[in-house]
UniProtKB/TrEMBL annotation:
Keyword Hydrolase appears in the UniProt entry: yes
Organism annotation: Ralstonia mannitolilytica
Catalytically driven reaction(s): [protein]-L-glutamate 5-O-methyl ester + H2O = L-glutamyl-[protein] + methanol + H(+)
Protein's name in the database: protein-glutamate methylesterase
Occurrences of domain CheB-type methylesterase (ranges): 17-209
């Protein structure tokens, strides 16, 4: 739903994304491992690059990424510092490391650091979202999924103000309706949708606003 009302989003036709400039930026916490899995299972092999922060301790994100990589049509990996963000790839923030979106010339790159926790978290969703606002602007599409607390709310508003389009998971499909609720309350969210509709809606939005070829 728009932050006030939610229309059903039809599943898009199979789509080839010829633009490598679009990005999908995802944040989640409690209940997020399954929500991220369900979201990524919807992504085609040629989708835009995806950066993900899931609140998770060090030592767990490597196995989480490997499990998703074996299930999904896209490549899923733990992010490393200075890696070019490629279409058809998802990059998960390592536990105890902030993940940011950077730029190297015309390319997007991953940036990792061990700066202070933000909202008591490292990695923090706000760190990723704010970097997307700075470095991607309207090329980014933000997704905030189930989770406790307010991490991501301020950063999602910065993304919206920079021209990004943002989606939040609805209360009924969340394990904990905390982070999405705060993001809506802060004014950073355009649409609130059930988890099952977020992937198809994101693809439909990218198809409508990117350079794509239907096949």
């Amino acid at each position: 739903m728009r932050a006030e009302h939610a229309p059903a989003a039809p599943a898009p036709a199979r789509t080839h994304f010829s633009s490598t400039e679009k990005l999908i930026i995802v944040g989640a916490s409690t209940g997020g491992t399954e929500a991220i899995k369900d979201f990524l299972l919807e992504m085609p092999p040629d989708c835009p690059g995806i950066l993900i922060v899931q609140h998770m301790p060090a030592g767990f994100t490597t196995s989480f990424a490997k499990r998703l990589d074996g299930l999904c049509r896209i490549r899923v990996k733990e992010a490393v510092h200075g890696e070019r963000v490629l279409p058809g790839h998802a990059y998960i923030a390592p536990g105890d490391m902030h993940l940011s979106l950077g730029r190297s010339g015309a390319n997007y790159v991953t940036e990792l650091d061990q700066g202070p926790p933000v909202n008591r978290h490292r990695p923090a969703v706000d760190v990723l979202f704010r970097s997307a606002a700075r470095n991607a602007g309207a090329n980014a599409l933000g997704v905030i999924l189930t989770g406790m607390g307010k991490d991501g709310a301020a950063g999602m508003l910065e993304m919206r103000n920079a021209g990004a389009y943002n989606v939040a998971q609805d209360e009924a499909s969340c394990v904990v309706y905390g982070m999405p609720k705060e993001a809506v309350a802060h004014g950073g969210v355009h649409e609130v949708l059930p988890l099952s509709q977020i992937g198809p809606h994101v693809l439909a939005r990218l198809s409508a606003h990117g350079r794509v070829t239907r096949v």
